[in-house]
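Take a specimen:
=====
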Amino acid sequence: MTDFWRNSGFHLVKRDARGHLELTDDFLRAYWNRPEVRPIEESCAAERALHARLLEQPRAAVGDAELAALADPDAVESYRIVAAFRERLIAAGTLEAAYLDYFRRPPSRSDGEAPVPPLFLDQLAHVILRAILEGEPDALRARAGELFFREQKVTINDGHIMAGDAEVVEHYATTGGFGDLGRLIAEAQTQLRTLELDVLDGSNAELYWARDEAHDTVLNLNFAGDGLDALCRVLERWVKHFLDVDVSIQPVQKISDERWVWHIGLDAEASALLNDLYDGQKVSEARLARLLSLFRMDFADPQQMRPDIAGRPIYLALAMTEGGQLKLKPQNLLVSLPLATQA
C-alpha cells in the first residue's frame, strides 16, 4: 500500500494491543526538536545543555532552576509549554487518550497549567488519523482526512462546493506560486498567472498519492458526490477508532424530523447554526448559505446510546465562516455523542 503523510510522525510511534498509538521516546524527541525549543546561534550555554539532555532523555524532568538559568525568556516559555504537553502525553500513555483527555479536561488557567497550542492538537489528529487510514487504498479518503487537521478555504462556483487547503490557497493568492518573486510582482500590481488546483474525483484521485504533503489538491464537497462520501467514511472510522462504536453517517439535504433530539456541529459555525435552528431562532439567508452539508448519523447498536436518545438519529452539520474558512473540529464527534457510557 502507498505510504503517505510521512511528516505526521506515524513512523515514530507503535501500536498497542487495541491498535492505539503508544508514546515513544522518538516521538517525544520530535517535540524537543521543534523550532520553538531548538537552540539558535544566540542561545546560551544553559539552553544548549538543557536541549542536549532532553534529546538524550526526552522524558527527563525539567526543573524550575534549569529554566531560570536560560537567558532568553521566550525560550523559557516555550520549554514550559512543551514540557507541560509532554507530561499530558506521558500521563495518558497513548496519543488517543491524550487527545481525548485534553478536550474532556482542558488546561486550567486558574491552576496555572500551561496552554496547549492548537497546532499540537492538530498534530495529534494528524498522526492518529494516519494510523486510522493505514492501508487505505482510496485517495479521496486520505484527502478528506486533511480536513481533520488543516484549515480549508471554501469556494462555491456554479453550485460546486470546493475545499482547498487554506494555507496553499493563500500562498498562491498572494504570490501566484512564485514565492518571494511573486510577492514583489504582486506589490508592483503586475497581474499574476491564474493557477487552477486539481479537483480530485473518482477519475483522477490517484494524483493525490504523489502530492499528499503538498496540500495542493481540492476536494469537491457536493451533496451525493465522491468527496463528501469519502469524508463520511473517514468520520465513521474516527468514531470507531476512539470509541469502539459503529456508526453510519450519510449526507441529507435537510432535517425533517419532528423528534429532532440531538445534533453536533463539526465546526464552530455549524454548532452555532444548529443550536439556533433547534431553538427556533430566526436565521438569515446569508448565514444559511454558509451551511455546506448536513448529515444523519445512526448507531449500529442503539444500546450504546443514552437510554433517552437510543434509536434516534444524530444530526451533524458542516459550515464555513463568512470569509469562506472551514476549520473542522473532529473532537466534537468524540466528546458530544450521547453515549451510554463514556469510553
Residues 177-195 have pLDDT under 50 and may be disordered. The chain has three domains: 6-132, 139-220, 226-335.
